[in-house]
Amino acid sequence: MKRKTIAIVIIAFLAFIILLSSVYVVNETEQVVVTQFGKPVGEPVTTPGLNFKVPFIQTANFFEKRFLEWDGDPNQIPTKDKKYIFVDTYARWQIVDPLQFFKRLRNELGAQSRLDDILDGETRDFIANNNLIEAVRTSNRTPMSSGIIGELIGDSLENIEVGREKIQAMILQAANEQTLDLGLKVLDFRFKRINYVEDVRTQVYERMKSERYRIADKFRSEGQGEASRINGEKERELKTIQSQAFREAEEIMGRADGEAAAIYANAYNKTSASRSLYKFMKSMETFEKTFDNNTHVILSTDSELYNYLKNAD
Q: What is the pLDDT of residues 245-260, one digit of tens each?
């Protein structure tokens, strides 16, 4: 009885193992190709649910149904106009025929390697067949004026014939033509980044700096010339104002002296005594303005100053 129980348990365990190896579950994001001794059998399973296979003989190979990512390595590529640039790309792809995919590529690792060859090769071909401007611009447009600086360095843009978006579309189309028998489809392709190689980038930066220095020197020279002109006009206007002010001051002082002389004349011309007093006061003012302790003069005897000095002794 005990041996019979053990046998039942063993049989049940083996049955469970066989059942597990014969059942597989397909999720919404998966698709399956069943193989027998390494060769595909039947049609691929693309709908989710519970499925069965021959245990131990057949194997369920699961593949993604969702969009997959491809990220290219930056490559140094010469353009048609001999500009060496680094081009970094990415793409999205999907397994559309799992059976053909399994036959040709076996797994996603093989698919990634094959896409490297296809997409990198097509990118190199299309970049090499177009000028750099075609890879960085998407359309022709009229640039907005940036003023005087734009006039000096040039605001005009060269027209493009193809453009970035068309190059991406052509690479996508060419890649899909090569993946028709691989069971996959490239859904989207984009340039992630385009840049000059280090040596060329340094030369471009130096040329840009030199151009800006030239513009700065031109503005600085024009500014200095304008400053000199403004200073010259300022000095000229200042001298004109000072000259006019001096002339007006002299005219005012002349009129004032004339009026003062008239007032003095009216005041001292009333009697002979007042006239003598006026003459004496003017002579004293002359002495005060003309002589000091170190002054030596020679006067004739007919001079009024001589008479005053003689009478002072």
A: 999 888 898 888 888 8
